[in-house]
Amino acid sequence: MRFDGGRVCLDLAATKEHGQAETADELRDTAQLSRWLYGAGLVPAATAIPVESGWLPHFHELRALLRRLVACEVDGDAPTPDDIAALNQFARPAPPAPAAVPEPRTEPRTATNTATNAATNAATRKPPQKETEPAVALSRRLAAPPTWESLASVVARDAVDLLTDPAARDRLRRCEGERCHRVYLDTSRGRRRRWCSSEVCGNRERVARHRRRTTLAGTQG
Hints:
Elements: H1 8-13, H2 30-39, H3 55-75, H4 81-91, E1 98-104, H5 111-124, E2 136-142, H6 148-163, H7 166-169, E3 172-174, E4 183-185, H8 198-220
Antiparallel strand pairs: 1-2, 3-4
Helix pairs in contact: 3-4, 3-6, 4-6
């Protein structure tokens, strides 16, 4: 799974491209949907989510809706009133509430903090203080098991934010890769990004360009 669209709503839209076979759908079952929800950052890694088969049709519906709305924006077409109403309906439920949970601290105190404390003590002429590690650190969890409505709302609200922001809309681009229709948010300097992923479509284009040059050189030689 890839998460290089620049917005979570674009990443969901890209989990199945137009014309792809059913086997190319990245959200074919509950295990894949669960993996996507974690990968997209909608659910903290250590939080269990009760993904059920009944969730899939709703996320498939939201995905198709997002593809239509984003395509309208990129192509300069007007979205239908029904699609706008559907997006607002998906965005209406409250998103999952976060919660801070204490856990045993596992990461060591950074060298930067230690050096800063030493410098502060030297500057103020205070005696060195003994470094102590806090027993716990706070981790992010969800306050309650999320519903599909609350998780879909996060994605839909991201789409509302994106599609109602003129500056963000102006940065939407369709990948120039052959047979790729992914739409991404171009945040590059000078807005010169051409591909959804330089490592995927960009690399394919470079390989194809090299092959064309090699073939041309062979025919001329």
